[in-house]
Amino acid sequence: MHIPDTPAPDDAAVPPRPALGAVAIGRNEGDRLLTCLRSLVGRVGRVVYVDSGSTDGSVDAARALGAEVVQLDLSRPFTAARARNAGIATLMDGPACPAFVQFVDGDCEVVPGWIELAADRLAADPGLAAVAGRRRERHPDASRYNRLIDAEWATPVGPARAIGGDAMLRADALAAVGGYREDLIAGEEPEMCLRLLRAGWRIERLDAEMTRHDAALMRFGQWWTRARRAGHAFAEGAALHGAGPERHWVAETRRALLWGAALPAGVVAGAAVTPAAAALLLAYPLQIARLSRRMGLEQAAFTTLGKLPEAMGAIEYHLRRSRLGRPRGLIEYK
Questions:
Q1: Could you tell me the residue range of the domain that residue 120 belongs to?
Q2: At 249, phi and psi to the nearest 5?
Q3: DSSP-assigned beta bridge partners for residue 128
Q4: Is residue 241 part of a domain?
């Protein structure tokens, strides 16, 4: 990985705020990591990069840009939650602990102006634990899968139940709930947010650009694996917190299993009795037509199709859960 000369950012004249820190996480992100770190260095007091076993020179490149580097122990399974916890632990281990921490994935660039806006919002409302803005795909037209992800990021502005990997959090609030749950291979942010809400904190999504994400999702197989990971996260989240009043990810898990497993199984079983059972497959185009009224045909079609890999992920979680002691690996799509 090379480190080319970079022009000063548009807001380079804005001095870094010592009450702010940043944690970036990644593995083998290449030049995307350099873009990420450049969007942070000089805008916050300290930047910590947590590396999960990169082999592309990311560690040296991050140090050259002025970031503090934490390399996770290779003997323990990697998870994003573990990386984020390691990052904030490093930030808080010093004489000048930040009040607010910007978390960002290593394939994202923080938009100029976001850090100042988010910090001001948290400072103005002591009851807010976290704020997030709009994450956008850097190249939405590079593939239909990038375009679908960009639409997925368009979440409502205002009070929120969850945030993603990019967000600014109040350090004390995160510490009060014990940080991220490190054994989750996906869905660790909404699970942490649920614990924040239960503790009386609030979360808000601001009407502002926050980060540019480079999904680089160019193949159908990548999209399928990503959806399978989502199904795994739904099932695990429901198993952990579904009995609570929030019914955390219960509906998402049920939809995945209904459309992605129960209905196909019903068609196969019914076909052994009567060919008319194939008529059940008409439920899929009808569902697409229903969803397309609010999200467009392409997104509706892939949302419906995505229930198949989501069901696979949910079933995979339950199979793993029934085999106690079996190690769980990451479900990676790139």
A1: 17-218
A2: 60, 20
A3: 202
A4: yes
Six-digit token string for 329: 């690996």
Across the chain, which has 334 residues, the per-10-residue mean pLDDT values are 42 61 94 95 94 92 95 89 96 87 96 96 96 95 95 93 95 96 93 97 97 93 95 95 95 97 92 82 95 95 97 93 62 68
Last residue of a domain, one of 191, 218, 245: 218
Residues 246 and 103 both lie in one domain: no
Rounded Cα–Cα distance for residues 193 and 189 (Å): 6
Looking at the chain, the number of H-run helices and the number of E-run strands are 13, 9
pLDDT of 7 reads 39
Residue 179: both structure tokens together: 């940080």
Strands (E), 152-294: 158-159, 167-170, 202-213
Nearest one of 311, 306, 296, 333 to 151, comparing CA atoms: 296
What whole-number distance in Å separates Cα of residue 249 and Cα of residue 91?
Answer: 32
Q: Which residue stretches of 258-282 are H helix?
A: 263-271
DSSP character at residue 99:
S
Contacts of 150 (CB under 8 A, 6+ apart): 136, 137, 140
The pTM assigned to this predicted structure is: 0.88
Task: Note whether 195 and 290 are same-domain residues.
Answer: no
207 sits in the region (left: phi over 0; alpha: psi -120 to 50; else beta) called beta
Place of tokens 């806006």: 117
Closest to 170 measured CA to CA, from 133, 134, 129: 129
Q: Residue 275: its pLDDT value, please?
A: 81
Return the CATH number at 71: 3.90.550.10
Q: Could you tell me the two tokens for 135? A: 């994450």
Considering the domain architecture, whether residues 81 and 175 belong to the same structural domain is answered as yes
Distance CA 2, CA 40 (A): 19
Angle between the N-to-C axes of helices 144-152 and 297-305, in degrees from 0 to 180, rounded to the nearest 10: 90
- pLDDT the model gives residue 16: 61
SS3 state at 163: coil
Q: What is the pLDDT of residue 87?
A: 96
In single-letter form, the type of residue at position 6 comes to T
The torsion angles phi and psi of 130, rounded to 5 degrees, stand at -155, 150
Number of domains making up the chain: 2
